[in-house]
Write a structure and sequence with these properties.
This protein is an alpha/beta fold. The chain has one domain: Aldolase class I (TIM Barrel, Alpha-Beta Barrel), CATH 3.20.20. Helices cover 41% and strands 14% of the residues. The protein has an eight-stranded parallel β-sheet. The two termini are 14 Å apart. The structure holds 2-phosphoglycolic acid. Residues 9, 166, 171-172, 210-213, 231-235 line the site of 2-phosphoglycolic acid.
Length: 249
Protein backbone atom coordinates (compact mmCIF):
# COMPACT_ATOMS: atom_id res chain seq x y z
CA UNK A 1 0.00 0.00 0.00
CA UNK A 2 1.20 3.50 -0.80
CA UNK A 3 2.24 5.76 2.03
CA UNK A 4 -0.36 8.38 2.92
CA UNK A 5 1.16 11.77 3.72
CA UNK A 6 -0.11 15.09 4.95
CA UNK A 7 2.52 17.83 4.76
CA UNK A 8 2.05 21.38 6.01
CA UNK A 9 3.85 24.04 4.00
CA UNK A 10 4.11 27.07 6.27
CA UNK A 11 5.62 29.24 3.50
CA UNK A 12 7.02 32.57 4.80
CA UNK A 13 4.95 32.56 7.98
CA UNK A 14 5.76 32.34 11.71
CA UNK A 15 8.78 33.78 13.51
CA UNK A 16 10.60 31.82 16.21
CA UNK A 17 8.05 32.44 18.98
CA UNK A 18 5.10 31.75 16.67
CA UNK A 19 6.76 28.56 15.48
CA UNK A 20 7.17 27.39 19.08
CA UNK A 21 3.51 28.10 19.81
CA UNK A 22 2.22 26.29 16.72
CA UNK A 23 4.49 23.32 17.28
CA UNK A 24 3.37 23.01 20.89
CA UNK A 25 -0.23 23.02 19.70
CA UNK A 26 0.57 20.38 17.07
CA UNK A 27 2.26 18.17 19.67
CA UNK A 28 -0.90 18.19 21.74
CA UNK A 29 -3.07 16.88 18.91
CA UNK A 30 -3.92 13.21 18.70
CA UNK A 31 -3.39 11.54 15.36
CA UNK A 32 -5.88 8.83 14.48
CA UNK A 33 -4.82 8.26 10.87
CA UNK A 34 -1.87 6.24 9.56
CA UNK A 35 -0.73 9.15 7.41
CA UNK A 36 2.81 10.42 7.77
CA UNK A 37 2.69 13.97 9.08
CA UNK A 38 5.23 16.63 8.08
CA UNK A 39 5.59 20.35 8.62
CA UNK A 40 7.80 22.74 6.69
CA UNK A 41 8.71 25.83 8.73
CA UNK A 42 10.96 28.51 7.33
CA UNK A 43 14.74 27.85 7.23
CA UNK A 44 15.55 29.89 10.35
CA UNK A 45 13.21 27.79 12.50
CA UNK A 46 14.07 24.31 11.23
CA UNK A 47 16.55 23.46 13.98
CA UNK A 48 14.26 24.56 16.77
CA UNK A 49 11.33 22.69 15.21
CA UNK A 50 13.44 19.58 14.77
CA UNK A 51 14.62 19.67 18.39
CA UNK A 52 11.08 20.06 19.67
CA UNK A 53 9.54 17.37 17.47
CA UNK A 54 12.29 14.78 17.09
CA UNK A 55 10.68 12.33 19.52
CA UNK A 56 7.23 12.66 17.95
CA UNK A 57 5.91 11.29 14.67
CA UNK A 58 5.80 14.75 13.10
CA UNK A 59 8.67 15.16 10.62
CA UNK A 60 10.25 18.57 10.07
CA UNK A 61 10.95 19.19 6.39
CA UNK A 62 12.32 22.08 4.29
CA UNK A 63 10.54 24.25 1.72
CA UNK A 64 13.42 24.57 -0.74
CA UNK A 65 17.18 24.20 -1.23
CA UNK A 66 19.89 25.08 -3.72
CA UNK A 67 21.45 22.52 -6.05
CA UNK A 68 25.08 23.38 -5.33
CA UNK A 69 26.99 21.72 -2.50
CA UNK A 70 28.34 25.05 -1.26
CA UNK A 71 30.01 28.20 -2.57
CA UNK A 72 29.22 31.73 -3.71
CA UNK A 73 25.40 31.59 -3.74
CA UNK A 74 24.42 34.39 -1.39
CA UNK A 75 21.23 33.70 0.49
CA UNK A 76 20.98 30.05 -0.45
CA UNK A 77 20.89 26.80 1.57
CA UNK A 78 22.40 23.47 0.54
CA UNK A 79 21.24 19.89 0.99
CA UNK A 80 23.98 19.13 3.51
CA UNK A 81 23.02 22.21 5.54
CA UNK A 82 19.46 20.92 5.73
CA UNK A 83 20.68 17.49 6.78
CA UNK A 84 22.82 19.04 9.50
CA UNK A 85 19.67 20.40 11.19
CA UNK A 86 17.81 17.10 11.06
CA UNK A 87 15.93 17.54 7.78
CA UNK A 88 15.34 14.38 5.71
CA UNK A 89 12.77 15.67 3.20
CA UNK A 90 12.63 18.77 1.01
CA UNK A 91 9.84 20.34 -1.04
CA UNK A 92 11.03 21.27 -4.54
CA UNK A 93 9.30 22.98 -7.44
CA UNK A 94 6.52 24.74 -5.57
CA UNK A 95 4.64 27.02 -7.96
CA UNK A 96 5.60 30.06 -5.88
CA UNK A 97 9.27 29.18 -6.42
CA UNK A 98 8.63 28.77 -10.12
CA UNK A 99 6.61 31.98 -10.46
CA UNK A 100 8.41 34.43 -8.13
CA UNK A 101 11.95 33.06 -8.18
CA UNK A 102 12.28 31.89 -11.75
CA UNK A 103 12.78 28.20 -11.05
CA UNK A 104 12.70 26.35 -14.34
CA UNK A 105 12.41 22.64 -15.08
CA UNK A 106 16.15 22.65 -15.74
CA UNK A 107 16.99 24.15 -12.35
CA UNK A 108 14.56 21.77 -10.68
CA UNK A 109 16.16 18.74 -12.31
CA UNK A 110 19.47 19.83 -10.75
CA UNK A 111 17.85 20.38 -7.37
CA UNK A 112 16.23 16.94 -7.49
CA UNK A 113 19.59 15.37 -8.32
CA UNK A 114 21.32 17.20 -5.47
CA UNK A 115 18.65 16.25 -2.96
CA UNK A 116 18.70 12.57 -3.94
CA UNK A 117 22.52 12.48 -3.98
CA UNK A 118 22.35 13.70 -0.39
CA UNK A 119 19.76 11.07 0.53
CA UNK A 120 17.00 13.58 1.03
CA UNK A 121 13.48 12.58 0.09
CA UNK A 122 11.87 14.99 -2.39
CA UNK A 123 8.31 16.24 -2.48
CA UNK A 124 8.20 17.41 -6.08
CA UNK A 125 5.46 19.95 -6.88
CA UNK A 126 3.95 20.83 -10.23
CA UNK A 127 0.64 21.96 -11.66
CA UNK A 128 -1.01 24.00 -14.37
CA UNK A 129 -2.14 27.64 -14.30
CA UNK A 130 -5.76 28.57 -14.93
CA UNK A 131 -5.22 29.38 -18.61
CA UNK A 132 -3.89 25.86 -19.19
CA UNK A 133 -6.90 24.34 -17.46
CA UNK A 134 -9.29 26.51 -19.47
CA UNK A 135 -7.65 25.68 -22.78
CA UNK A 136 -7.62 21.96 -21.97
CA UNK A 137 -3.83 21.95 -21.90
CA UNK A 138 -3.48 20.90 -18.27
CA UNK A 139 -2.40 17.32 -18.86
CA UNK A 140 0.25 18.30 -21.40
CA UNK A 141 1.66 20.94 -19.03
CA UNK A 142 1.83 18.56 -16.08
CA UNK A 143 3.35 15.82 -18.23
CA UNK A 144 6.12 18.13 -19.43
CA UNK A 145 6.86 19.40 -15.90
CA UNK A 146 7.27 15.83 -14.68
CA UNK A 147 9.26 14.65 -17.69
CA UNK A 148 11.63 17.60 -17.76
CA UNK A 149 12.55 17.48 -14.09
CA UNK A 150 12.34 13.77 -13.28
CA UNK A 151 12.55 11.48 -16.30
CA UNK A 152 16.34 11.44 -16.38
CA UNK A 153 16.21 9.48 -13.11
CA UNK A 154 16.57 5.72 -12.67
CA UNK A 155 13.43 3.89 -11.59
CA UNK A 156 14.98 3.20 -8.18
CA UNK A 157 15.13 6.94 -7.44
CA UNK A 158 11.35 7.02 -7.14
CA UNK A 159 11.58 5.32 -3.75
CA UNK A 160 12.61 8.74 -2.50
CA UNK A 161 10.18 10.86 -4.48
CA UNK A 162 6.71 12.00 -3.55
CA UNK A 163 4.72 13.90 -6.16
CA UNK A 164 2.45 16.82 -5.32
CA UNK A 165 -0.07 17.95 -7.92
CA UNK A 166 -0.95 21.55 -7.13
CA UNK A 167 -3.07 23.36 -9.71
CA UNK A 168 -1.85 26.94 -9.43
CA UNK A 169 -5.40 28.30 -9.69
CA UNK A 170 -6.31 26.46 -6.48
CA UNK A 171 -3.40 27.57 -4.30
CA UNK A 172 -4.40 30.07 -1.63
CA UNK A 173 -7.53 31.00 -3.59
CA UNK A 174 -10.12 29.06 -1.63
CA UNK A 175 -10.97 27.30 -4.87
CA UNK A 176 -10.09 23.60 -4.94
CA UNK A 177 -9.98 21.21 -7.80
CA UNK A 178 -13.06 19.03 -7.47
CA UNK A 179 -12.30 15.56 -6.10
CA UNK A 180 -12.99 14.26 -9.62
CA UNK A 181 -10.56 16.72 -11.23
CA UNK A 182 -7.91 15.72 -8.69
CA UNK A 183 -8.54 12.01 -9.27
CA UNK A 184 -8.44 12.39 -13.07
CA UNK A 185 -5.12 14.22 -12.94
CA UNK A 186 -3.59 11.83 -10.40
CA UNK A 187 -4.59 8.87 -12.57
CA UNK A 188 -3.04 10.62 -15.58
CA UNK A 189 0.19 11.21 -13.61
CA UNK A 190 0.33 7.55 -12.63
CA UNK A 191 -0.20 6.55 -16.27
CA UNK A 192 2.61 8.89 -17.32
CA UNK A 193 4.91 7.28 -14.75
CA UNK A 194 3.81 3.81 -15.76
CA UNK A 195 4.56 4.43 -19.45
CA UNK A 196 8.11 5.36 -18.57
CA UNK A 197 8.94 3.21 -15.54
CA UNK A 198 6.30 0.49 -15.45
CA UNK A 199 3.29 -0.16 -13.25
CA UNK A 200 5.23 -1.16 -10.13
CA UNK A 201 6.94 2.20 -9.87
CA UNK A 202 3.78 4.09 -10.83
CA UNK A 203 1.72 2.30 -8.21
CA UNK A 204 4.25 2.78 -5.43
CA UNK A 205 4.74 6.55 -5.70
CA UNK A 206 2.59 8.66 -3.36
CA UNK A 207 0.83 11.51 -5.17
CA UNK A 208 -0.41 14.35 -2.97
CA UNK A 209 -2.97 16.96 -3.91
CA UNK A 210 -2.43 20.60 -2.90
CA UNK A 211 -4.55 23.71 -3.30
CA UNK A 212 -7.02 25.01 -0.69
CA UNK A 213 -7.37 21.70 1.16
CA UNK A 214 -9.40 22.43 4.30
CA UNK A 215 -11.02 20.32 7.05
CA UNK A 216 -14.34 20.46 5.20
CA UNK A 217 -13.09 19.09 1.86
CA UNK A 218 -10.13 16.88 2.81
CA UNK A 219 -12.07 13.69 3.33
CA UNK A 220 -13.70 13.79 -0.09
CA UNK A 221 -10.41 14.57 -1.87
CA UNK A 222 -8.39 11.98 0.09
CA UNK A 223 -11.14 9.44 -0.58
CA UNK A 224 -10.17 9.26 -4.25
CA UNK A 225 -8.15 6.15 -5.13
CA UNK A 226 -5.12 7.90 -6.64
CA UNK A 227 -4.90 10.69 -4.04
CA UNK A 228 -2.45 9.68 -1.31
CA UNK A 229 -2.61 12.79 0.82
CA UNK A 230 -2.17 16.52 0.71
CA UNK A 231 0.23 19.42 0.72
CA UNK A 232 -1.46 21.99 2.91
CA UNK A 233 -0.73 25.72 2.95
CA UNK A 234 -3.11 28.09 4.76
CA UNK A 235 -4.84 25.42 6.85
CA UNK A 236 -1.47 24.15 8.13
CA UNK A 237 -1.04 27.37 10.12
CA UNK A 238 -3.76 26.34 12.55
CA UNK A 239 -3.10 23.19 14.60
CA UNK A 240 -6.76 22.18 14.89
CA UNK A 241 -7.41 22.59 11.17
CA UNK A 242 -4.20 20.79 10.23
CA UNK A 243 -4.96 17.79 12.39
CA UNK A 244 -8.58 17.73 11.24
CA UNK A 245 -7.08 17.28 7.74
CA UNK A 246 -4.57 14.65 8.94
CA UNK A 247 -7.43 12.74 10.55
CA UNK A 248 -9.57 12.99 7.43
CA UNK A 249 -8.11 9.73 6.11
P1 LIG B 1 -3.04 26.40 0.16
O1 LIG B 1 -1.54 26.17 -0.32
O2 LIG B 1 -3.47 25.18 0.94
O3 LIG B 1 -3.00 27.64 1.02
O4 LIG B 1 -3.87 26.58 -1.07
C1 LIG B 1 -1.14 24.93 -0.81
C2 LIG B 1 0.32 24.98 -1.20
O5 LIG B 1 0.78 26.01 -1.70
O6 LIG B 1 1.05 23.99 -1.02
Amino acid sequence: MRQQIVAGNWKMNNDLAQTETLITNLKNQVKTSKAEVMIAPTFTNLWQAYQTLKDTDIEVIAQNMHFAANGAYTGEISASMLKSVGVKTVILGHSERREYFGETDEILAKKVDAALANELRVIFCFGEVLADRKSGNHEAVVESQIKNALFHLEASAFKNIVLAYEPVWAIGTGETASPEQAQDMHAFIRKTLSNKYGADVANSVSILYGGSVKPNNAQEIFGKPDVDGGLIGGAALNADDFFAIVNAF
